[in-house]
Amino acid sequence: MEKQLSEIESFYGRYNEDDRMARNSIEFIRCKEIISRYLTREKMEIADIGGATGVFSYWLQKQGHTVHLLDYTQRHIEQAKENGKKMGATLASYTCGDARQTPYMDEQFDLILEMGPLYHLQDSEDRLKCLREAKRLLKNGGVVLCEAISRYANLFDGFQKGFVRDARFVEILNENLRTGKHIPGDTPYFTTAFFHTPDLMADELAQAGFAEISLVAVEGFANAVHADAFLGDENRTSLLLQYIRSTESIRDLLGVSDHFMAIGTKGNA
Question: Which residues form the domain of 204?
């Protein structure tokens, strides 16, 4: 596990995570839409665990919520602080730490975002530790929102971007499809990761003790229809988003989405 975490930290030392959501505008729009459904009060205590450079943290902070940011990569924490200085904003706390064991108190939060940790933990027990830790931190009735990468994301990417011409990528893809594990080795592809099926993601939340579990597609069918061509036109973008929303919970389509969100509630003890 330590080797995997070292590989991930090394990757994000090179990769510019700070503007990823700007490059993936449909994902950003949709994540904010889905999160907004669970902002049930004007001022909530929120943990953004694995929140990278704080793109969601500052968006939530600007709405009046108290937000604590935790990320495994020190570079992300430093970038998040710099981003805050540029915006004249400060989060409640910044922590370089592990999603499986956080410094926060029991039942501290109304809402927890897990927008990255679960797709960087390849071992099921590590993912369950992460989810059980989130449950510990939530107040009764609190909600966790977990973003997962689809088991089939590399299948679409490989053919759309021509990666399948690389025999090494094909080996990685075959392992993705067989086990969910993304093991890039010394290739230039995405770092060590785990790609979920919708059923597995729901099962892991249930094993961790969450109730009222639901699954929602983030980009939905957009990656299958070259959606970037729609983004330069406001009317076409609006139409695209309308159909993503209307099909977001169709179980048969969840795996088509590059990412999907799993949502769970902590029941009364």
Answer: 2-150+196-265
Q: Which amino acid is at 54?
A: G
CB 176 within 8 A of CB 165: no
The pLDDT tens digits of the residues spanning 42-69 come to: 999 999 999 999 999 999 999 999 999 9
Among 161, 155, 157, CA closest to 178: 155
Q: Side chain identity at 56, as an amino acid letter?
A: F
Evaluate whether 260 touches 218 at the Cβ level (below 8 Å): yes
Q: Which residues pair with 260 in a beta bridge?
A: 148, 217
The Cβ-side half-sphere exposure at 151, using a 13 Å CA radius, reads 15
Strand partners, 67: 46
Choose one of 137, 159, 185: the last residue of a domain: 185
What is the band of 228 on the pLDDT scale with cuts at 50, 70, 90?
Answer: confident
Q: How many structural domains does the chain have?
A: 2
Q: What is the pLDDT of residues 184-225, one digit of tens each?
A: 988 988 888 999 999 999 999 999 999 999 999 999 999 888
